[in-house]
Amino acid sequence: MTAQSIPLFEMAFTRCTVILILSFVWLKRSRQPIFGTSSVRKLLVLRAFMGYLSLLSFIYCIQRVPLSQAIMLNFTTPIVAAVAARVILHEKLKIAEIGGLACSFFGVLFIFRPVLNIQGSTEAGEANISYVKGSNHLYAVLVGLVSSTVGGVSYCFIRAGAKAADQPLLTVFAFGLFATPAAAICAFIFEGFVLPGFYTLLLMVILGSLAFLAEITVARALQLEKTSKVVNILYLQAASTQLLGMSLSRIVPTFGRLVGCTLILISACCTMYVGPEKEVD
């Protein structure tokens, strides 16, 4: 059995729908207020809006630039989140946390550098590409940077909303409530609907359920820990993807990939357990 090719907005709609349903059921079973108190609703609305704007921008970006470049742009989000938390939430950054974020980002650069070089050589060989295409590529990159920036700010609102409501699941439900109809409208306007088969639909539901668990975990972590620590741990998804691919013989274990994974693992450990207490004011 093979999965169908599903439009991105339709995939986003399915994922957001699964997140909405699961978070609603969880809140009802735990007898929690669905919309939270009036004092946190503004934070929840801002979190939902910023989260979907980041998702929308990222989808636009990956449709118009090579996937590896879009992923690289997306991995600037933790850095933006740490800086935004310093400004919005007035969180102090430790020297170890700044170094950890830099080390993790360099690890991502080591992992994706071979792919970027290959794509760069291919694009350089196509010298007859028009200026208009180059302008569109630059525009897509700028949209990708907007996605990273808005995504970083969204993490700040997740932390603020989770702490104010004392229930991190509310931030997940708010995102699903806003993003589900928004993704449906985008799918209807920009893409054609593709009826998924049973196997494809099952995969989409499973991925949506995993996304729900990831959303809850991140929201809970942001409720308990500083933003800079939590977002640095997010770099582990790059390392874990590479290590899993190497173990399944789907990814060639090059020196750059091994160095990148090592840097990310060391950075995550150091951010959690090591580092001086000196802070940057």
TrEMBL record:
Keywords, comma-separated and alphabetical = Membrane, Transmembrane, Transmembrane helix
Q: Which cell locations does it reside in? A: Membrane
**Highest taxon of the source?**
Eukaryota
* InterPro entries assigned: EamA_dom, EmrE-like
Could you confirm whether the keyword Metal-binding appears in this record?
Answer: no
Which Gene Ontology CC terms are recorded? Answer: membrane
PANTHER family, alphabetically?
A: ACYL-MALONYL CONDENSING ENZYME-RELATED, SOLUTE CARRIER FAMILY 35 MEMBER G1
**Pfam families registered for this protein in UniProt:** EamA
Which coarse location class applies to the principal site listed for this UniProt protein?
Answer: membrane
**Which parts pass through the membrane?**
6-27, 48-65, 71-89, 96-116, 136-157, 169-190, 196-218, 255-275
The top of its lineage is: Eukaryota, Viridiplantae, Streptophyta, Embryophyta, Tracheophyta
Family assignment?
Belongs to the drug/metabolite transporter (DMT) superfamily. Plant drug/metabolite exporter (P-DME) (TC 2.A.7.4) family.
Question: Where in this chain does the record put each EamA domain?
Answer: 4-112
Protein name per its UniProtKB record: Uncharacterized protein LOC113723515 isoform X2
Q: Where is the signal peptide?
A: none
What SUPFAM superfamilies has UniProt attached to this entry? Multidrug resistance efflux transporter EmrE
- What is the membrane topology here? Multi-pass membrane protein
Organism of origin is: Coffea arabica (Arabian coffee)
